[in-house]
Structure formats: structure tokens, C-alpha cells
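Checklist before submission:
- one chain only
- standard amino acids only
- sequence pasted in full

Submission:
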Amino acid sequence: MIGPTGHLTIGDVDQGMLDFTLARLRKHGLDTIADAVRCDVARLPFVDNSFEAAFMVAVLGEVRDRQAALNELFRVLVPGGRLVVGETTFDPHAVRADDLQRLAGGASFTDDEQVGGRLGWFIRFRRLIRAEIAVVMHDRRTPDPVAGFAFMEQQKATRHIATLSAYAGCLSRRGTDVWRDRTP
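Returned file contents:
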């Protein structure tokens, strides 16, 4: 969910997908809190640390340089920021979960949790802060260097993503409450 001062920036290389997504947002009365930017996820036109959350559904499999894309998402997210990636099993270009986790780890993300089943899944990652990166790099020799992070509420993520285009990668601007930790 986007908080009262939040803003949504939608990015895609295809202007048609941006127009489609903005039309859906208008239909639901959400176009006043969103803007669209035609861009390549591997070369984002945003300053460092400018977003609190980002999500992509059925996007990463279409990207030629996936590692560059994840590195760029790391760059534009604030320390501790969230990245949620979703894939469906019927997408012929879908990225496998284990491949995504390896790529995301290479960009210094850590995965919080994976939810889903046979038809598709979501994985929530968190951008590590500088001190955590040093610890993880030191502990890379262990089989599970990072564990015990907060879990995503599957219903909230599904509801939020269903409002938008299933093909547009979206970034959530600072000032939102999207994907906060829900631990007691």
C-alpha cells in the first residue's frame, strides 16, 4: 500500500505498456499519485537512494543484462529498501528462483522470503546497509549467511500488484509504507 504522502513511478521500455498501466491506474482513481518514465531497468534515470521499494512482475526474464538491472535497482533503493520480484511458471522467459537469488546476492541484496506455488512466486529482497554487506562478505563461506528477516504479507503484495500492469516494473517513491516489516 502507498501511504498518504507516497508516490508511484512506473518504468518500462515500452511506451504502450506505460500507457496501458496509467489507464488502469486512472480507472481506479490512482493516477494522481503516479507517473510513468520510459527507461531501461539496466540504466535507470534516477539518483542514488531515491526509492524505498521496487517491484517487478514478469519483467526480469525480458531483460538482457539481468545483473546490471539488479545492480541499478540496488543503487536507486535506500539502504534497507525492498525489492519484490514475481514470476509465473507459464512465462517462457521467466527467471528461475535460484537464478534470481544468485543474481540478487551478487548485487548485495538478501532475500527475506519466497511465497507462491506451482503457478508462480514472489521473492522479497532487502538492500543491505554497508555494515551488513561487510558481515555477509565475511560469512560467505557458510551455507546460509543471512537469515531471520521479516516476512512479506502475501495478500498485501498480491492486492497491490493486481492493481497494476502485470508487465510493468514499478518503483515506489520515498514516503510510502509499502512492504514494511510486519514482525511483532
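Reviewer check: Helices lie at 15-27, 66-76, 97-106, 130-138, 154-162.
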